[in-house]
């Protein structure tokens, strides 16, 4: 994708060439592994403004005044995790919250943007489900394995404290695994730890008690394109197929007195 780098913004000839190249054949790779430059993004925006938006104008106008997503999707900031590609989600489908390591600070400890996104999605948007989606080869999980590598990154180091239960469990139970397998196990344990943190948020706890909110804990495997999900009943992660394993524990019921 380097051939567009030297063209000035608004170069219509270059734009036309670009549009031609975007006409993907089923067996033709659309793009190289080089990430998009700012100029490439500008060309794509022009295509959106001139072709995609006019073709889907009614749909976008319906969304102009309100959003009613049913799913809060919390995932890592990693550029390789692209929910709109993996799940073919469309505008209005997912309320997305991204951060380093798909981490959820326990309620009250750090009232930042992640906690605000959860509160807004659960109380105002009344989403029906929350997905916490980690991924393979996660830099945050690697940093959790090797904290010395982020010693000079005080903000990252402090943020990763919210994953400490996962690190401790992985160290105690999976230390005999290879480095790759340990990383995979740690990534899953992080999902479990973040679900526990999520449940400390009053808005979430209340909806779980009411029984009208589901939590899902997923791991996206970049190398295979698979998504694995935590099955609370089985107590392990399973490959998503036709069924949808839930990570939600059954709502508590008050014992009769
Ligand atoms: Zn990551």
Read across the widest sheet, the strand sequence of neighbours is 2-1-3-4-5-6
The number of distinct structural domains comes to: 2
CATH superfamily of the largest domain: Carbonic anhydrase
* Strand tally: 6
User: Averaging pLDDT over every residue, what do you get?
Assistant: 90
DSSP strand content: 5-15%
Q: Spans with pLDDT under 50 lasting ≥5 residues?
A: 1-10, 24-28
Bound molecules: zinc ion
- Gyration radius, rounded: 21 Å
Query: Residue share in helices?
Result: 40-55%
Largest sheet: 6 strands, mixed
| Helix/strand structural class | alpha/beta
CATH hierarchy, class of the largest domain: Alpha Beta
Provide the CATH architecture of the largest domain.
3-Layer(aba) Sandwich
List the helices and strands and how they pair.
Elements: H1 12-22, H2 38-55, H3 57-63, E1 71-76, H4 83-86, E2 94-99, H5 113-124, E3 129-135, H6 139-145, H7 154-159, H8 164-173, H9 179-198, H10 202-210, E4 214-220, E5 227-231, E6 236-239
Parallel strand pairs: 1-2, 1-3, 3-4
Antiparallel strand pairs: 4-5, 5-6
Helix pairs in contact: 5-10, 8-9
The structure holds zinc ion.
Residues 76, 78, 101, 135, 138-140 line the site of zinc ion (ZN).
């Amino acid at each position: 994708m380097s051939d567009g780098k030297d063209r000035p913004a608004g170069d219509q000839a270059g734009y036309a060439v670009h549009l031609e190249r975007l006409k993907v054949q089923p067996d033709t790779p659309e793009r190289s592994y080089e990430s998009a430059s700012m100029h490439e993004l500008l060309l794509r925006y022009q295509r959106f403004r001139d072709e995609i938006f006019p073709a889907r104008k009614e749909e976008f106008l319906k969304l102009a005044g309100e959003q009613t997503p049913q799913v809060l999707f919390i995932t890592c900031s990693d550029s390789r995790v692209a929910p709109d590609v993996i799940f073919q989600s469309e505008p209005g489908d997912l309320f997305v919250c991204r951060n380093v390591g798909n981490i959820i600070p326990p309620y009250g400890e750090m009232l930042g943007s992640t906690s605000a996104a959860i509160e807004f999605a659960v109380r105002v948007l009344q989403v029906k489900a929350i997905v916490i989606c980690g991924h393979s080869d996660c830099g945050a999980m690697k940093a959790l394995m090797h904290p010395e590598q982020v010693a000079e990154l005080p903000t990252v180091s402090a943020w990763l404290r919210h994953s400490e239960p996962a690190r401790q469990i992985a160290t105690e139970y999976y230390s005999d695994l290879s480095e790759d397998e340990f990383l995979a196990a740690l990534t899953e344990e992080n999902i479990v730890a973040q679900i526990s943190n999520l449940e400390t948020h009053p808005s979430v706890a209340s909806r779980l008690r009411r029984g009208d909110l589901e939590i899902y804990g997923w791991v996206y495997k970049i190398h295979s394109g698979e998504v694995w999900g935590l099955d609370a009943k089985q107590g392990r992660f399973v490959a998503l197929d036709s069924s949808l394993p839930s990570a939600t524990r059954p709502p508590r019921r008050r014992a009769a007195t």
